[in-house]
Amino acid sequence: MLFRKYHVVIFKDNQGTCSKLRLHSWMFFLLGGLFVLLVVGNVVFLRSLHGVKFMEQSVEAAQKKVKAQETQMLALSGKINALEKDLTRIRDFDSQLRVMMNLDSQVEAVGSVGNPKAEDFAEKAALLRQERLARRMHDFLDSLTTDAQLELVRQEQIIDALRGNLEQLASIPSIWPTQGWVTSAFGPRRSPFTGRNEFHQGVDISNKIGTPIYAPAKGVVTFAANDAANGKTLVVQHGGGLVTRYSHLQDFNVKVGDKTERGQLIASMGNTGTSTGPHLHYEVRLNGAPVNPMRYILE
Fold first, then answer.
1. Which UniProt key words apply to this protein (predicted)?
2. Which CATH number fits the domain 181-295, given the four candidates 2.70.70.10, 3.40.50.720, 3.30.420.10, 2.60.40.60?
């Protein structure tokens, strides 16, 4: 059957000629097989195309889900950063209180040992894979928990110290004596008069003449007079070796022997003595030695 031959005769009109086409049986089987293969191929292609579209939809849905999760994790990272900043402020305030209460010799940052340092996860989130970011956040939350527990212990120590030292706390110069701008900080500087390097023993706060000056703590006025270099100067003794000094004043509102309370008006800002402009030169001395007033001011 496969080897049978078929003749196809084709007559041409008005020409009296004809053409013969010889076909073998296997050619029909070949054409049929090709047709079947074409049909099967189309079916397979259509099914594959449908599968690809389904996969594309799945990938798109997965990408949207990942993007939503990344957004949530970025929001979480922002909250973590805010929490870390709050804890840092609490630690700084704690350290300053401990120095003021003579529980520590100097202000220093205290954290848990061996825990990773805080990082800005929001900036690095785009560079880290989601799993790594989640793991780092988990570790950082553990670190914050440990630090918070340590800080709780330190706060309890301070509370115990404050209960027995309320009088001492009232005598610590813990507020700004006036309003204005710090134009010269405590420490080394170049003298505005000689141009030479010198050690500035206080803090200069500038404002207009007559700006009120308040007592930063409870104390007793021990000096209120004019000084050749510092102009009108006021000195308040707070006890425990602490003394505050106010220079270049315009007027006094207290006199020697008067007792002061924190927040009480004691003088007004001026430009007396050797001065470059209206300002208050504010000093804090401990046992006669100048110390940085910022050590005691609770901002």
1. Coiled coil, Membrane, Transmembrane, Transmembrane helix
2. 2.70.70.10
